[in-house]
Design a protein that fits this description.
By secondary structure, the chain is an all-alpha fold. It has 6 helices and no strands. The radius of gyration is 32 Å and the shape is elongated. The mean pLDDT is 84.
Length: 146
């Protein structure tokens, strides 16, 4: 009975599940460029490393990363859309670039104001605390012993 449910889900997967699977695939594999040139480069490097190892009498050992990632990071595939992956999440449905930039600017301004307020509060708090401690110290100093 569980197998039937799994087969049904595989045959009629939701768009969010398909997008998730596609995202995982693109995260693990380079899918944006043709594989044949990369495969030829990989084989060439492996042959070169093998020849060097044989010539020097060393054991054959391949480095962890033979292929250099030229872009420096993984780009999301064109179909990647957080609004489709998380349809109920309001934040991901907002795609107006100008509006988002404006919101980021407002948040940065508000954060700077909050930090300034927090610094001023701490200065004021420390001043009041120091004032009270001085009063308490004076009170203790002039207290008559019993």
């Amino acid at each position: 009975e569980h197998v039937d449910q799994v087969i049904h889900e595989l045959m009629d997967a939701s768009s969010a599940k398909l997008l998730y699977q596609d995202t995982i695939l693109h995260d693990a594999l380079e899918c944006r460029t043709p594989a044949a040139p990369r495969m030829a480069e990989l084989i060439g490097k492996m042959i070169e490393i093998g020849r060097d190892a044989r010539r020097s009498g060393q054991a054959l050992l391949f480095p962890a990363e033979l292929m250099v990632n030229t872009c420096g990071h993984h780009l999301p595939e064109e179909k990647f859309d957080l609004a489709k992956l998380y349809p109920g999440h309001k934040t991901f449905s907002q795609m107006d670039k100008v509006e988002m930039q404006s919101e980021i600017g407002n948040l940065r301004r508000d954060m700077a104001r909050s930090e300034a307020w927090a610094r001023e509060f701490m200065r004021s708090f420390e001043y009041r605390l120091a004032e009270r401690l001085l009063k308490l110290k004076k009170k203790m100093m002039f207290r008559r012993p019993k």
